[in-house]
């Protein structure tokens, strides 16, 4: 038989307050649901000039249990696939820009057509320069010192 005698002696907590208290004590950055497939919809260099995208480019973001909560593996397919580890330093309010970095960046080494090669060269500069990420459900933006990449799910 189970012993129920302590069941009613616990003080009732307002779950919202206890969760807020927990999250302020929590030292690990939040895990954001970034996993999945994205399409690159806009690329700008550091002067805000838009880099034309001649075709559709996709990015896949993956997270597995062996990684820290705030780490993700990215694979951005342009001509080659640029891959690396994305590390987030996420504050509680995910609507703002979050400090983030990607590195080291690896790439497959095929020679794409010239117009795609140009996009790839720009991306290869922007991605490792990333300092912040902003995320809103369907949209993900990499903000780097060399430019910005805007993705959509």
Q: Report the portion of residues in β strands.
A: 35-45%
Major sheet strand order: 1-2-3-4-5-7-8-9
**Mean of residue pLDDT?**
84
Overall 3D form? globular
Main beta sheet strand tally, sense and closure? 8 strands, antiparallel, barrel
Point out poorly predicted stretches.
Answer: 14-28
Spell out the helices and strands N to C.
HEEEEEEHEEE
DSSP E strands, number: 9
Q: Tell me the structural class.
A: alpha+beta
Quote the distance from N terminus to C terminus.
52 Å
If you compute it from the alpha carbons, what radius of gyration comes out, rounded to the nearest whole angstrom? 20 Å
Percent of residues in helices: 10-25%
Number of helical segments with 4 or more residues: 2
Features:
globular, 153 residues, alpha+beta, single chain
Q: How would you sum up this structure, described in words?
A:
The protein has 153 residues and is an alpha+beta fold. It has 2 helices and 9 strands. It has an 8-stranded antiparallel β-barrel with strand order 1-2-3-4-5-7-8-9. The longest helix is centred in the last third of the chain and has 13 residues, at 114-126. The N and C termini lie far apart (52 Å).
In short:
With 153 residues, the chain is an alpha+beta fold. It is built from 2 helices and 9 strands, in the order αββββββαβββ. Strands 1-2-3-4-5-7-8-9 form an 8-stranded antiparallel beta barrel.
Secondary structure layout plus pairing:
Blueprint: H1 15-25, E1 36-45, E2 58-62, E3 71-77, E4 81-88, E5 98-102, E6 106-107, H2 114-126, E7 130-136, E8 139-144, E9 147-152
Antiparallel strand pairs: 1-2, 1-9, 2-3, 3-4, 4-5, 4-6, 5-7, 7-8, 8-9
